[in-house]
Q: What sequence folds into this?
């Protein structure tokens, strides 16, 4: 996909990977729809990114997701791509993890992206094509104690993305799953069910340093341009 003048929704774009991605796509000529559940944050981002359009969205609320698509179509009359980036970590052993917190994490990390896909697929099909990039996690490639809840949701998103790619291939709708490694963001600020012990696998000896969010944004741009099925960032490269 040539992203110049394309309308691209980036969820969770007020910080971290989402913000870096929104800035990069805008720099490359895309028209970016920025979103966050925090009104002040997303409006600030919109002021900093020329030509962008801000929508307040809580990705755990189907009505908000539908409103995002509705407002984008009212403003631009098309949606060319979606970056399903909004998400939240979870930390805690499976044995003791509260089911209510597990459900909240799945609602954001799996159901939210799925609902947005369901909303934009008919639009993209009518337009003759489009691109969806779902943000997974490098933890899906490992078995790490303490992150089973988080990685299980991202693993489901991974499989959903691979199947959707095949289902939508004939409609010229490309679906890619991108698995970042540990990224230097404030992603863990609002994590579900935090442990009393603040140490995590990320701080263990031998774990490579976190990637800057700009590195992940570059990979997302590559996914849009080249239509890769899956991209996993390699630690330390």
A:
């Amino acid at each position: 996909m040539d992203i110049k003048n394309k309308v691209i929704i980036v969820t969770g774009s007020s910080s971290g990977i989402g913000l870096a991605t929104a800035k990069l796509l805008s720099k490359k000529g895309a028209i970016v729809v920025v979103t966050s559940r925090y009104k002040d944050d997303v409006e600030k981002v919109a002021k900093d990114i020329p030509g962008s359009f801000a929508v307040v969205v809580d990705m755990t609320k189907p009505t908000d997701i539908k409103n995002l698509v509705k407002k984008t179509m009212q403003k631009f009359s098309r949606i060319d791509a979606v970056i399903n980036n909004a998400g939240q970590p979870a930390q805690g052993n499976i044995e003791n993890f509260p089911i209510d917190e597990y459900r909240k994490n799945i609602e954001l990390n799996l159901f939210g992206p799925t609902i947005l896909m369901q909303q934009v697929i008919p639009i993209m099909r009518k337009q003759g094509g489009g691109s969806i990039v779902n943000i997974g996690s490098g933890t899906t490639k490992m078995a790490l104690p303490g992150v089973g809840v988080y990685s299980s949701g991202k693993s489901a998103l991974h499989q959903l993305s691979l199947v959707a790619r095949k289902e939508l291939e004939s409609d010229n709708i490309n679906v890619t799953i991108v698995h970042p490694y540990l990224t230097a963001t404030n992603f863990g600020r609002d994590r579900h069910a935090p442990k009393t012990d603040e140490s995590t696998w990320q701080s263990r000896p031998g774990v490579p340093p976190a990637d800057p969010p700009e590195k992940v944004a570059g990979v997302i741009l590559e996914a849009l341009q080249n239509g890769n099925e899956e991209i996993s960032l390699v630690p330390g490269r």
The chain has six helices and seven strands. Residues 75 and 149 are 37 Å apart (CA to CA). The chain has one domain: 7-232. The longest helix spans residues 99-127.
